[in-house]
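User: Please write out a complete single-protein record containing the residue sequence and its fold in C-alpha coordinate form, without commentary.

AI:
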Amino acid sequence: MKKISKKQGIAFLIIVIYELIAIIYTPVIVTSFIGGIVVSFLGIGLCLGIIHFYLQEPLTEYGVHLKKVHLQIISGIVLTFLIVFLLIQGKGDFRWSSFLFYLNRLGQKFSSDPVNIVYFLIPLINVIAEEVLYRGFLLTFFQKIFNSSMLSIWLSAILFGISHYPSNNNIAQVISASIMGLIYGYLRVNESEKFSLFSLCLTHYLHNIFLIYFFFYV
Protein backbone atom coordinates (compact mmCIF):
# COMPACT_ATOMS: atom_id res chain seq x y z
CA MET A 1 0.00 0.00 0.00
CA LYS A 2 1.37 3.36 -1.06
CA LYS A 3 1.30 6.41 1.16
CA ILE A 4 -1.35 8.82 -0.05
CA SER A 5 -0.64 12.51 -0.43
CA LYS A 6 -2.59 15.14 1.46
CA LYS A 7 -4.36 16.17 -1.73
CA GLN A 8 -5.37 12.59 -2.52
CA GLY A 9 -6.67 12.11 1.01
CA ILE A 10 -8.76 15.27 0.91
CA ALA A 11 -10.11 14.41 -2.54
CA PHE A 12 -11.09 10.92 -1.40
CA LEU A 13 -12.73 12.30 1.75
CA ILE A 14 -14.80 14.79 -0.25
CA ILE A 15 -16.03 12.07 -2.61
CA VAL A 16 -16.84 9.71 0.28
CA ILE A 17 -18.82 12.42 2.11
CA TYR A 18 -20.73 13.25 -1.08
CA GLU A 19 -21.58 9.59 -1.71
CA LEU A 20 -22.61 8.95 1.90
CA ILE A 21 -24.98 11.91 1.80
CA ALA A 22 -26.36 10.74 -1.55
CA ILE A 23 -26.90 7.19 -0.23
CA ILE A 24 -28.50 8.33 3.04
CA TYR A 25 -30.94 10.59 1.23
CA THR A 26 -31.62 8.19 -1.66
CA PRO A 27 -35.21 7.43 -0.50
CA VAL A 28 -35.95 11.16 -0.70
CA ILE A 29 -33.96 11.80 -3.88
CA VAL A 30 -35.63 9.05 -5.93
CA THR A 31 -39.03 10.64 -5.31
CA SER A 32 -37.84 14.04 -6.49
CA PHE A 33 -37.31 14.69 -10.19
CA ILE A 34 -35.19 17.79 -9.65
CA GLY A 35 -33.35 16.31 -6.65
CA GLY A 36 -32.14 13.28 -8.60
CA ILE A 37 -30.83 15.40 -11.47
CA VAL A 38 -29.09 17.88 -9.17
CA VAL A 39 -27.37 15.14 -7.16
CA SER A 40 -26.19 13.36 -10.32
CA PHE A 41 -24.84 16.53 -11.93
CA LEU A 42 -23.17 17.45 -8.66
CA GLY A 43 -21.44 14.06 -8.54
CA ILE A 44 -20.22 14.35 -12.13
CA GLY A 45 -18.94 17.89 -11.65
CA LEU A 46 -17.37 17.09 -8.29
CA CYS A 47 -15.40 14.08 -9.55
CA LEU A 48 -14.21 15.65 -12.78
CA GLY A 49 -13.48 18.96 -11.08
CA ILE A 50 -11.40 17.35 -8.34
CA ILE A 51 -9.41 15.33 -10.86
CA HIS A 52 -8.75 18.17 -13.29
CA PHE A 53 -8.51 21.27 -11.10
CA TYR A 54 -7.55 20.03 -7.62
CA LEU A 55 -5.41 16.95 -8.25
CA GLN A 56 -4.36 18.37 -11.64
CA GLU A 57 -4.19 14.92 -13.17
CA PRO A 58 -5.18 14.03 -16.74
CA LEU A 59 -8.74 12.80 -17.09
CA THR A 60 -7.50 10.06 -19.42
CA GLU A 61 -5.92 8.33 -16.41
CA TYR A 62 -9.42 7.99 -15.00
CA GLY A 63 -10.91 6.49 -18.15
CA VAL A 64 -12.26 9.70 -19.68
CA HIS A 65 -11.39 9.67 -23.37
CA LEU A 66 -12.89 9.18 -26.82
CA LYS A 67 -10.01 7.33 -28.47
CA LYS A 68 -11.19 4.85 -31.12
CA VAL A 69 -14.75 5.96 -30.45
CA HIS A 70 -16.22 3.65 -33.10
CA LEU A 71 -14.59 0.65 -31.45
CA GLN A 72 -15.91 1.82 -28.08
CA ILE A 73 -19.47 2.12 -29.40
CA ILE A 74 -19.36 -1.33 -30.99
CA SER A 75 -17.84 -2.85 -27.85
CA GLY A 76 -20.46 -1.20 -25.65
CA ILE A 77 -23.35 -2.42 -27.80
CA VAL A 78 -21.98 -5.96 -28.06
CA LEU A 79 -21.51 -6.14 -24.29
CA THR A 80 -25.07 -4.90 -23.80
CA PHE A 81 -26.47 -7.61 -26.07
CA LEU A 82 -24.52 -10.27 -24.18
CA ILE A 83 -25.82 -9.04 -20.83
CA VAL A 84 -29.41 -8.77 -22.09
CA PHE A 85 -29.19 -12.24 -23.64
CA LEU A 86 -28.08 -13.72 -20.31
CA LEU A 87 -30.89 -11.89 -18.50
CA ILE A 88 -33.46 -13.24 -20.93
CA GLN A 89 -32.10 -16.77 -20.58
CA GLY A 90 -32.32 -16.44 -16.81
CA LYS A 91 -35.95 -15.36 -16.94
CA GLY A 92 -37.85 -18.45 -17.95
CA ASP A 93 -41.20 -16.70 -18.44
CA PHE A 94 -39.82 -14.01 -20.76
CA ARG A 95 -42.00 -13.68 -23.88
CA TRP A 96 -40.68 -12.04 -27.03
CA SER A 97 -44.22 -11.27 -28.22
CA SER A 98 -44.86 -9.24 -25.07
CA PHE A 99 -41.47 -7.55 -25.41
CA LEU A 100 -42.28 -6.42 -28.96
CA PHE A 101 -45.71 -5.24 -27.82
CA TYR A 102 -44.22 -3.06 -25.07
CA LEU A 103 -41.52 -1.81 -27.44
CA ASN A 104 -44.13 -0.71 -29.97
CA ARG A 105 -46.31 0.89 -27.29
CA LEU A 106 -43.32 2.75 -25.88
CA GLY A 107 -42.46 4.08 -29.34
CA GLN A 108 -46.01 5.34 -29.82
CA LYS A 109 -45.96 7.00 -26.40
CA PHE A 110 -42.83 9.02 -27.15
CA SER A 111 -43.88 9.93 -30.68
CA SER A 112 -47.18 11.32 -29.38
CA ASP A 113 -45.60 13.22 -26.49
CA PRO A 114 -41.90 14.13 -26.95
CA VAL A 115 -41.78 15.40 -23.35
CA ASN A 116 -41.64 11.76 -22.27
CA ILE A 117 -38.09 11.60 -23.61
CA VAL A 118 -37.14 13.00 -20.20
CA TYR A 119 -37.69 9.53 -18.78
CA PHE A 120 -34.84 8.34 -20.97
CA LEU A 121 -32.56 11.24 -20.06
CA ILE A 122 -32.78 10.82 -16.29
CA PRO A 123 -31.29 7.29 -16.30
CA LEU A 124 -28.52 8.55 -18.61
CA ILE A 125 -27.49 11.28 -16.18
CA ASN A 126 -27.56 8.82 -13.28
CA VAL A 127 -25.43 6.33 -15.22
CA ILE A 128 -22.80 8.94 -16.11
CA ALA A 129 -22.59 9.96 -12.45
CA GLU A 130 -22.13 6.35 -11.31
CA GLU A 131 -19.50 5.52 -13.91
CA VAL A 132 -17.50 8.70 -13.29
CA LEU A 133 -17.54 7.99 -9.55
CA TYR A 134 -16.99 4.22 -9.37
CA ARG A 135 -15.14 3.23 -12.56
CA GLY A 136 -13.53 6.64 -12.89
CA PHE A 137 -12.43 8.22 -9.63
CA LEU A 138 -12.64 5.40 -7.07
CA LEU A 139 -11.25 2.58 -9.23
CA THR A 140 -8.28 4.69 -10.33
CA PHE A 141 -7.73 6.02 -6.80
CA PHE A 142 -7.63 2.49 -5.38
CA GLN A 143 -5.19 1.44 -8.11
CA LYS A 144 -2.86 4.27 -7.20
CA ILE A 145 -3.04 3.46 -3.48
CA PHE A 146 -3.03 -0.34 -3.39
CA ASN A 147 -1.06 -0.97 -6.59
CA SER A 148 -3.38 -3.91 -7.26
CA SER A 149 -5.86 -3.84 -10.12
CA MET A 150 -7.85 -6.82 -8.87
CA LEU A 151 -8.27 -5.44 -5.35
CA SER A 152 -9.26 -2.07 -6.81
CA ILE A 153 -11.85 -3.68 -9.07
CA TRP A 154 -13.36 -5.61 -6.16
CA LEU A 155 -13.44 -2.61 -3.83
CA SER A 156 -15.09 -0.30 -6.35
CA ALA A 157 -17.57 -3.03 -7.36
CA ILE A 158 -18.59 -3.77 -3.76
CA LEU A 159 -19.08 -0.08 -3.01
CA PHE A 160 -21.08 0.24 -6.22
CA GLY A 161 -23.31 -2.63 -5.12
CA ILE A 162 -23.81 -1.26 -1.61
CA SER A 163 -24.83 2.12 -3.03
CA HIS A 164 -27.88 0.44 -4.62
CA TYR A 165 -29.29 -0.89 -1.35
CA PRO A 166 -31.09 2.23 -0.04
CA SER A 167 -33.16 2.62 -3.22
CA ASN A 168 -35.33 -0.43 -2.42
CA ASN A 169 -33.60 -2.30 0.45
CA ASN A 170 -33.00 -5.28 -1.81
CA ILE A 171 -29.94 -7.48 -1.17
CA ALA A 172 -30.40 -9.17 -4.56
CA GLN A 173 -29.91 -5.81 -6.27
CA VAL A 174 -26.75 -5.20 -4.24
CA ILE A 175 -25.37 -8.54 -5.43
CA SER A 176 -26.33 -8.02 -9.08
CA ALA A 177 -24.95 -4.46 -9.06
CA SER A 178 -21.69 -5.72 -7.52
CA ILE A 179 -21.40 -8.36 -10.25
CA MET A 180 -21.95 -5.74 -12.94
CA GLY A 181 -19.39 -3.55 -11.17
CA LEU A 182 -16.85 -6.38 -11.37
CA ILE A 183 -17.47 -6.80 -15.09
CA TYR A 184 -17.31 -3.08 -15.84
CA GLY A 185 -14.25 -2.61 -13.65
CA TYR A 186 -12.39 -5.52 -15.21
CA LEU A 187 -13.06 -4.22 -18.72
CA ARG A 188 -12.12 -0.67 -17.75
CA VAL A 189 -8.73 -1.88 -16.44
CA ASN A 190 -7.88 -4.63 -18.91
CA GLU A 191 -9.60 -3.42 -22.10
CA SER A 192 -9.16 0.33 -21.69
CA GLU A 193 -9.15 1.12 -25.42
CA LYS A 194 -12.50 -0.58 -25.94
CA PHE A 195 -14.03 0.30 -22.59
CA SER A 196 -13.44 3.83 -21.40
CA LEU A 197 -16.10 5.55 -19.30
CA PHE A 198 -17.81 6.44 -22.58
CA SER A 199 -18.49 2.86 -23.68
CA LEU A 200 -19.21 1.75 -20.11
CA CYS A 201 -21.80 4.51 -19.80
CA LEU A 202 -23.35 3.31 -23.06
CA THR A 203 -23.56 -0.30 -21.86
CA HIS A 204 -24.72 0.66 -18.37
CA TYR A 205 -27.40 2.97 -19.79
CA LEU A 206 -28.79 0.48 -22.32
CA HIS A 207 -28.76 -2.24 -19.67
CA ASN A 208 -30.71 -0.05 -17.24
CA ILE A 209 -33.21 1.00 -19.90
CA PHE A 210 -33.87 -2.64 -20.73
CA LEU A 211 -34.42 -3.47 -17.06
CA ILE A 212 -36.59 -0.43 -16.32
CA TYR A 213 -38.83 -0.37 -19.38
CA PHE A 214 -38.94 -3.95 -20.59
CA PHE A 215 -37.54 -6.71 -18.39
CA PHE A 216 -39.80 -6.03 -15.39
CA TYR A 217 -42.92 -5.59 -17.51
CA VAL A 218 -42.65 -8.47 -19.99
Observations:
- The mean pLDDT is 86.
- Residues 157 and 179 are 7 Å apart (CA to CA).
